[in-house]
Design goal:
By secondary structure, this protein is α/β, with parallel strands linked by helices. It has two domains: 12-134 and 319-446, nicotinate phosphoribosyltransferase, CATH 3.20.140.10; 195-285, TIM Barrel. The protein has 16 helices and 19 strands. The protein has a seven-stranded antiparallel beta sheet. Strand 17 and strand 18 form a beta hairpin. It starts with 11 loop residues before the first helix and ends in an 11-residue tail after the last helix.
Length: 457
Amino acid sequence: MNSLSSPLLTDHYQLTMLESYLQQGMQETAVFELFFRKLPPTRNFLVAAGLEQALEFLENLHFSAGELAWLRARFGPALVNYLEQFRFTGDVHAMPEGTLFFPDEPILRITAPLPQAQFVESRLINLLHFETLIASKAARSVLVAPGKLLVDFGMRRAHGAEAALLAARASYLAGFSGTSTVLAAAIYGMPSFGTVAHSYIQAHTDETAAFEHLVRCHPENSTLLIDTYDTEAAAIKVVTLARKLAQDGIEVSGVRLDSGDLGMHARCVRRILDEGRLEKTRIFASGNLNENRVQELISSGAPIDGFGVGTALDVSSDAPALDCAYKLQEYAGKARRKRSEGKATWPGRKQVYRKYDPDGRAVRDVVALEKDDPHEGEPLIVPMMRNGRRIDGINGNRKLEAIRRQTVANYACLPEPLRSLETACAYPVEISPSLQALAKKVDDECGPITSTRNLRV
């Protein structure tokens, strides 16, 4: 079994429900929607990501002989026989990756026979939640560091191999320049970046020799790590070495700072480099950075050309999880609604419309029923799959680079307060009158909710 592509990468209760659905003959069309209930205190918006992996999962979903054998020892023959021919045959509507969205707005809708639509829940949440989480974190660095080189440095502390790969993809989608994770670059066709470790410098008996060996090995593009011992002294060595290398037509591309007072060191190093006529040599900084620290360095005027952001990005340290859900909104042609306290849902198939002002800034969203007459604004949910197959030319098939460009363009449509790292007033998301009326109709049919305050034990 390939552990990451196996359909057994799910929750046990999905199989329990499937077995019961089959026993009761419940295989009519169901509609589920994935949405986020609220924003963390440190987020003003979210960035939709992970759709490509979700569509790939749905398109290739099937059970191998080994997986069926494992299930046969644990579940009844009716379920296993059903799963032998199991394929996703439904439709998918979604917000394209890179769309900026807000609470109560569905970013994915699955329309399929109930057992299929139910079974895919766990993996869809797993994929869409994680990439949306990381893309939304990465967006904050992109917004505070326009024009700067931003590199994902977080693989070694990511929560597992798949998390490292998807974090690299999600951060690039959100506007990062690339990643240090080589496999992510190979899989997703994104740029990879790297310098050297302190151990490389330490392994040499002479720091200047280490610098020269690296530059001569990579004469086209090399960044020297200069804070292993004495940062400013190392910068002077770089200037001296550069004069020697220039005789062979080789330039020092950049230097990297990874510790200490990055702003202070950057100023000192920039002065040393400029006085040594290395004005083109870039300064790259890393070391426990997050978007707040990046903003502080830029605001202070630190002459830093690029940043490596690692742990804080790949684990989304300030908001490590988002409150998302995948809920049944319609079954057998009838609207359904969860009414749990604090977790009630809006029933029916929905569309989200975004209204813009004359300057192209978003001013409000409306969540409406799909069957309504179109509301004013841009509809954000589009078809992605039909009958279990991707629709050619639709956004789910876009190349990652095109998604990245669109995501960055989307930031320009945000109201200015939402672009800040500070928590802004909530963006207005309206629930259409027809959707509210449908919710009331469903509630009336279900009857009143009994308050626990009126119950006696």
